[in-house]
Amino acid sequence: PMAKVLYPGKEDFTPRKRERIFREIRNNDWDAVILSHEQFGMIPQSPEIQQEILQAELDCVEENLEVLKAQGRDVSRAMM
């Protein structure tokens, strides 16, 4: 009941207010910040973090393709 929760609305993510809400998220001690997928995607990320995320996704896809191959399933070029 005493949790400090931030639930920003659409109006907080307008181009004019976006930087303010990012500062509020970053500089306060929130117990939880609830964002929509779209809002989460607006959070700026460094190129290094973007690369890590993409590499993790690629590794997962490659692992899944290897599992399919090991099971004797056909892996088409389109799946790669």
UniProtKB/TrEMBL annotation:
<protein>
    <submittedName>
        <fullName>Uncharacterized protein</fullName>
    </submittedName>
</protein>
<dbReference type="InterPro" id="IPR052933">
    <property type="entry name" value="DNA_Protect_Modify"/>
</dbReference>
